[in-house]
């Protein structure tokens, strides 16, 4: 009997000792899911988006369309750490930083490499914050950006800002950029870095008759040699997507939007950039291949005609983007980076001699090949090849 009593006491002690006495219930913590940074009047101003996961957790009892409250805290300080920690004084609950998913910076921070480095340094020194955080630039008000919700009034965790991968799979423009990739690319010589620009549009969606704002990636901030080279719209940068591995699906109207004869979907394009170096002259041959399928037809044309017209559209987009960069001496197609990866010594010599300059004839040849793999379920409108 005594042995049984001793065994019970030992078991009770084991259970008590293994308990988490300092654990907190999830409803008693404030979870930061996104942070906005701006710089004004020699101070960093931080905005934190805070959610209570009890309200956003998906369950069988979850009521779709029910408004999910978003709390936004604002801090200020001469350093990033001071601005963030100033929020503690009024937070009422313990703040948890382990679920930060997105970082948004204003143009004042993006224009100053030291301030951008300060933000990154302060965030990554804190143990709770992870490296795989999405990074954006914006021209919008942070109060509007961080209060934005998804379709059906779902939480901010279900928006383009926090979950961009699914949208990029349906319509590829700029792939999501994570913090660790931005730093790696910015430290690579010759590399052009694209930081997606997030904005809000009220022109597309309505809830009944009320306009509903939604996120949109409207362009990108370009960083070269760790300095902000400028902002370019999505239209300016259409040619870039043909050189990105993350591009999955692109709609192309042929031959143009004025008199369209059909729409194709081009998938997973491949590319090759061939530098042509002769002393101090630097030119490039570009090769792009893509598979396609017919999404819709307005007129009856042959498969060969559609392939040729789609190839022309891709080529024109590349040329347009190149000339947008040429006007600002910004290497939007990442041509010089290819020289560095192939022959860093030649790249350094050309840079030292001032020959890494974009010119009208820098693009020597652009060869685009589009192959239509199938024409969809409805085949009656497609003529055989001549």
UniProtKB/TrEMBL annotation:
Gene3D superfamilies from the xrefs? Answer: Nutrient germinant receptor protein C, domain 3
Q: Where is the Spore germination GerAC-like C-terminal domain?
A: 219-376
Main localization is membrane
**InterPro entries xrefs:** GerAC_N, Spore_GerAC-like, Spore_GerAC-like_C, Spore_GerAC_C_sf
Swiss-Prot/TrEMBL keywords: Germination, Lipoprotein, Membrane, Palmitate, Signal
- Cellular localization per UniProt: Membrane
On the tree of life, the source organism's domain of life is Bacteria
Q: Where is the Spore germination protein N-terminal domain?
A: 22-200
Q: How does it sit in the membrane?
A: Lipid-anchor
Q: Which family does it belong to?
A: Belongs to the GerABKC lipoprotein family.
Which NCBIfam families does the protein's record reference? Answer: spore_ger_x_C
User: Which protein are we looking at?
Assistant: Ger(X)C family spore germination protein
